[in-house]
Design brief:
alpha/beta; Rossmann fold; N-(1-d-carboxylethyl)-l-norvaline Dehydrogenase, domain 2; 2 domains; 13 helices
């Protein structure tokens, strides 16, 4: 199957390489010539275990290639993955300008039927905007070419992204078009030979699933942070408590960290791009998790000073000691 991936960032590059690994022919597009030069030279601009070797292997096999030619990319693949960034806007909402631009590009150059896949983390309702942008471009061209827009959110963990893509615990696909559903089913068939991991739903449900997953994980983090504070006051060992509650299969040991949680997670969760997350009626759904994380950052700042006696390094005369807090990335929790 021929696939085009718009965007060679973290999600786009991992997706493109893994899809090529399964025998597809993938063309990755990026508007940054420097990034494309790096990829063509056999290097990658990010670090992810196993990714560089996979990219090199599939480039050598002729299944994976890179380009800055927008028209070539759009004309190449039946499936068009949109995997561009959605940085926060000034008001905190998700900036969809790159997503909409990618959609307009597809509408401007498509010459045959396309299945357009939202792979970027986007707010609920984005698929409708993508579809409208494509339709507008086709109308301006005066042509009628069939297409559909599918939501296929990613659930990759940094540090284990290749493993997560190649052996997914679930594959969420939101589609309302029969051709789109069958195309995505065929695309992901090699990834689920032993177990059916494909979860089909409507587009908006798929878009919300990503935010719901973030909300659930963030709530667990916040709860453990508050429990850690209580344990500290009572003289209990939070690690032993975590082991005790994590042994319950209804709770599970995964993702019960005492941590700050990343800025990325909170941006995805609390951006105004998630309808309802900032309203009075629905905002309290996320409120405790958000406030808990903020309080934990303050406590971490305080403990970095009061806990100097637990630091394995000692400040020497004439030299200052800096102790970064939260520099580790615990893949076992994510």
């Amino acid at each position: 199957m021929k696939i085009s991936v718009i965007g060679t960032g973290y999600v786009g590059l991992v997706s493109g390489a893994c899809l090529a690994e399964m025998g597809n022919h993938v063309l990755c597009l990026d508007v940054d010539p420097r990034k494309i030069e790096i990829l063509r030279a056999g290097s990658i601009p990010i670090y992810e275990p196993g990714l560089e070797a996979m990219v090199q292997r599939n480039v050598a096999a002729g299944r994976l290639s890179f380009t800055t030619d927008i028209q070539k990319s759009v004309e190449y693949g039946l499936i068009q993955f949109i995997a561009v960034g959605t940085p926060p806007d000034e008001d905190g909402s998700a900036d969809l300008s790159h997503v909409v631009t990618a959609a307009r590009t597809i509408g401007r150059y498509m010459n045959a039927r396309k299945v357009v896949v939202d792979k970027s983390t986007v707010p609920v309702g984005t698929a409708e905007k993508v579809s409208a942008a494509i339709a507008e471009e086709l109308s301006q061209r005066g042509v009628k070419i069939p297409y559909c827009v599918v939501s296929n959110p990613e659930f990759l963990k940094e540090g284990a992204a290749v493993e997560d893509f190649m052996r997914p615990d679930r594959i969420v696909v939101g589609a309302d078009d029969a051709f789109g559903i069958e195309t995505m089913r065929a695309l992901y068939a090699p990834f689920q030979r032993n177990h059916d991991k494909l979860i089909l739903m409507d587009v908006k449900s798929a878009e919300l699933t990503k935010y719901a997953a973030n909300a659930m994980l963030a709530t667990r983090i916040s709860f453990m942070n508050e429990l850690a504070l209580l344990a500290e006051r009572l003289g209990a060992d939070i690690e032993r408590v975590r082991q005790g509650i994590g042994s319950d299969p209804r709770i599970g040991a995964h993702w019960l960290p005492v941590s700050l949680s990343g800025v990325w997670l909170w941006r995805l969760l609390f951006s105004q791009g998630c309808p309802g997350a900032t309203t009075d009626s629905h905002g309290k759904w996320f409120g405790p998790a958000h406030s808990g994380s903020g309080g934990n950052r303050q406590r971490a700042s305080e403990s970095s000073v009061t806990g100097q006696d637990r630091c394995p390094f000692r400040e020497e005369p004439g030299r200052k000691m800096l102790c970064p807090v939260g520099t580790g990335f615990q893949t076992q929790y994510r």
